[in-house]
Amino acid sequence: MPEFSFRPHARLTACNIVVIRGERLVLDDVGFDLDDGEALLLTGPNGAGKSTLLRTLAGLRRLDGGKIRWREDEAPVSSSRLAYLGHQDALKPGLTVAENLTLTARLNATDLDTALAQVDLLPLAELPARLLSAGQKRRAAIARVLLADAALWLLDEPSLGLDAAAVEKLGGLLATHRARGGMVIATTHVPLPLPAPRHLALRAPDMVPER
Ligand SMILES: Nc1ncnc2c1ncn2[C@@H]1O[C@H](COP(=O)(O)OP(=O)(O)OP(=O)(O)O)[C@@H](O)[C@H]1O
Question: Which first-to-last residue range defines the signal peptide (predicted)?
Answer without folding.
Answer: none
